[in-house]
User: What shape does this take?
Amino acid sequence: MGKFSTYKRFLLDDDTAKYETGKTMPGFKFLEEIERGYVEPLTHVLLEDPVLYLMASQDCTDEQYFKVLGQFWAFERAVGALHANWLLGYKLGPNGEYQEVEYMEVRQIWEEFKHARLYEDAILRLGYLDSRWELHSHPWCQLIPEGMALLNFLQGMSRYPIPVRAAANHLASEAPFVAWFEKAGRVTRNPIVAAAFGAQVLEETCHANIGRYVVMKYADTSEIQAMTRWACKMVLEYTRRFGTALYEWLQKQEADQLEVVDRWQKRRGKRR
Amino acid sequence: MEKKKKNVFFRIVEEKCIDCGICREVCPYTAVYIEPNPLKISFVVDEVRCTGCGGEAHALCVRFCPAPGALIEIERVTSC
Assistant: This one.
């Protein structure tokens, strides 16, 4: 307490002291553990992602490019909305903690939608669709079930303390993708698709660093650290499954199943 | 004759648990927590908080658990 303080300074430990077992690790050591235990293994998995090899090969078809772009577009938008939803019920800690996290969240929301826009632009420039509006109803631009599972888990993190959700949403799910985007930007054959991925590296790095900062600074009780480990492990598992399922889905040729439906004309016909 | 309510609590079998955390999400008594152990991730049921919810057939943790056999019912031993 300060010399002339008029109120007790509450620490984040005060609430969780009853669960404290004396096994709390210092912030930087804990961050190291998370990086070594969960971020690095997932990075290695993603660098060997068969989707990357597919996009680097000459055999990659327009359908496969479009499917990858469509899935990433849907995921970026959903994650942007997820971050935006957190801010609706955002509360600061008893001493005004987490205010800087709120500012960083705002930045991230903007950037997630910007990334979605990059995919949209790529899709339009490649002539896969006529308009942005079409993306919202296109069957290939809806998340596949495994992607939905990952997204659902990340959404569920909103019920957890801020360091846990930051570890899951900023660190475990973004940090390994920095390497993926960087490699995708280098190896993808199609220059427009490559540019859409490569352009995100810097901002994804910022997002990962938000996670690093929050975990190091605020994951300061053994209970929160245990939850953080669990969240990172689950994100690793879900992301791995998403990658595998995405590749399997890309192998299917489904272009002949698409059908142009003139919804506008049909609706007009009904009205008349 | 009135049926006597089961006096039980649950325990998580570590070998069968897949760490999905659903039991923690659905428990109405917040009896499930992650053990603060830096060496491993393990979910534990607080035996004091767990009311058993009237047995396996009613407990939400058991009904939502995707890993069969990960939660076992244990009879509470009472002294009186």
Summary: Chain B has a mean pLDDT of 88.
